[in-house]
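Structure ticket #2291
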Amino acid sequence: MPATRVAIIGGGIVGLATALRLQQRLPQLQITVYEKEPAVGRHQTGNNSGVLHAGLYYKPGSAKARLAVQGVRQMVAFCQAHEIAHEICGKLVVATDPSELPRLHDLHQRGLQNGLSGLSLLSPGQIREIEPHAAGLLALRVPEEGIVDYPQVCHVMVGLLTAGGATVRTNCAITSIEPGWVLNGQYEADFLINCAGLQCDRVSALAGERRRARIIPFRGEYYMLKPDSQHLVRHLIYPVPDPAFPFLGVHFTRLIHGGVEAGPNAVLAFAREGYRWNQVSLPDLWDALTFPGLWRFLVRYPSMASYEIRRSLSHKLFCASLQRLVPAIQPADIERGGAGVRAQAMLPNGDLVQDFLIVDSAKALHLLNAPSPAATASLAIGDEIVNRVVGRLT
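Resolution: structure written out below.
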């Protein structure tokens, strides 16, 4: 009997981790990963700040919370086993205004409910012992968080997959899917797994699914601390998130191979892979602007949308937002860095899909929302997907 053929569309870290977990569980499968770029991990995986998220922020009982807590421990173990650069340096979530103190205490309780270890509340003096230049009335220390080289994780995963007999096919954009499944008129599969990230809703439509949510691309831009100013941040410094706004807010991240990143903001990207203002895709822009959910979202958050655009265009305004956490930061201390694009699923009513969104059918599975902490949780997400599909592959 011929081996069951599984096609995984998307060669980011989630697609690769899913392929790896599937190979480990069912080594007899014929697994092929299809990636449209010349190499894997070129988009969300390779353009984030490389943080290992421990699951602090996420609603207890949600898939995000469960998979983040499982995933960070699995990812650390994977990095240790394969000698991948990583460091568990810990994070401070800092309250800089009295109005943030109740929310910080709520975060502490949420972290405990999610199973995080070693959480502690720090006084201003204790904050300065860890981060001498950070402001703060109170901070929550999260010792399980860290930093990692996600592109190196992907490189190792590809090596393990190919050594185990799987195929990772790059430069292979999937532009048509016929029932059966026949991809691009030539690649046949018995089962389809869609981990296409920024293109996942379009891939699901190619496979005959109704687009229940639309991917709206939000660009997150970063600044870098100049070398002479990097002493101002030792590890990870985050704000207390404001529940009135849908995004976390700018923060500081020390990078695994050196340097300190500050950001990101969140502005609508004019292309799904638009890392700069001048990168415009008319089909992508039309797809976003003709979606009623986007307009309902903008009506709901007009001041935030306006502020994010102004901050994107103003070096001084971006710096001012960083000074809330580290007052010593000055405009001369920072320079523009890179950017990432977040594949945010949005509903027609303007709500952002906050949790992972998985849609099953008889011969396919579509991962239609995999926001942060998807990179951290990728191996746990792979387990989750395999648990859902294993009965249909044996």
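Closing remark: The two ends are 12 Å apart (CA to CA).
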